[in-house]
Amino acid sequence: MADSLFYLVVAAMAAVVVALVIGIAGYGKGGEFNKKHGNKMMRLRLLFQFIAVLLILAYVYLRNQGGQ
């Protein structure tokens, strides 16, 4: 269980990085994309971060319970 959860944690962190890079690139470029999607990208990144933190906490909890 913990190994599959580890891969979910890695995927969630990768999603955070992708959303962050798209958001920063859109902000840097400016224009219509940033006006239309800038706030959505920030919210999406925050959602991905929240999910990643919950998965990390679950992973640490299960590892400490011996659920390898």
UniProtKB/TrEMBL annotation:
Query: Keywords on this record?
Result: Membrane, Transmembrane, Transmembrane helix
Q: Which Pfam families match?
A: HIG_1_N
What InterPro entries does UniProt report for this protein, alphabetically? Hypoxia_induced_domain
Q: What residues form the membrane-spanning segments?
A: 6-25, 46-62
Q: Does the keyword Signal apply?
A: no
> Where does the HIG1 domain start and stop, copy by copy?
1-68
Q: What is this protein called?
A: Twin transmembrane helix small protein
